[in-house]
Amino acid sequence: MQRTVLIVEDEFLIAMHLQRLLEEHGWRVIGPVATVRAALRLLEEKLPDVALLDVNLGREMVTPVAEALRARSVPFAIASAYERPERFAGEVLAGAVNVGKPAVERRLLAALRQLIDREPVG
């Protein structure tokens, strides 16, 4: 079964690189989207298996998207240069795997696989 990943990234070239990379490894990409509003709209239509979130989307933080994902039990990873993204975008990001920016291919793929393989809590 092909797994789905929502990419929320406001830098066009980075978003395209992530999409191409993940599709080459068998993922079906939802998006990429560059705004909180666009991401929340996609989440109303279909839930991805996992999400990859940039923290700072231009003039807004990704916080509402992370909160919506948590409320729907969709695991996510962060792709950020911030060492502690929760200091900028809230506690909802605390404990999320940060694959860095730019993301290293092996680390990104391992993080997404770990999120997929993780047993549901509860």
Give the SSE map.
Elements: E1 4-8, H1 12-24, E2 28-33, H2 36-45, E3 50-53, E4 56-57, E5 60-61, H3 63-71, E6 76-78, H4 86-89, H5 105-117
Helix pairs in contact: 2-3
Q: Would you mind describing this structure in some detail?
A:
By secondary structure, the protein is α/β, with parallel strands linked by helices. 40% of the residues lie in helices and 18% in strands. One of its GO terms (molecular function) is DNA binding. It comes from Hansschlegelia beijingensis. InterPro entries: Bact_response_regulator, CheY-like_superfamily, Sig_transdc_resp-reg_receiver.
Entry keywords:
single chain; 122 residues; alpha/beta; four-stranded parallel β-sheet; 18% strand; globular
Q: Estimate the mean pLDDT confidence.
A: 89
What order do the SSEs take from the amino end to the carboxyl end, as H and E? EHEHEEEHEHH
Radius of gyration: 13 Å
Determine the N-to-C terminus distance: 25 Å
- What is the fourth-level CATH superfamily? Response regulator
CATH architecture: 3-Layer(aba) Sandwich
Shape: globular
Task: Kindly report the CATH topology.
Answer: Rossmann fold
Number of helices: 5
Helix and strand content put the structural class at: alpha/beta
Q: Give the strand order of the largest sheet, numbering strands 1, 2, ... along the chain.
A: 2-1-3-6
Question: Uncertain regions: pLDDT < 50 for 5+ in a row?
Answer: none
Number of strands: 6
User: What can be said about the biggest beta sheet?
Assistant: 4 strands, parallel
Keywords: DNA-binding, Phosphoprotein
Protein name: DNA-binding response OmpR family regulator
Modified residues (4-aspartylphosphate): 54
Pfam families: Response_reg
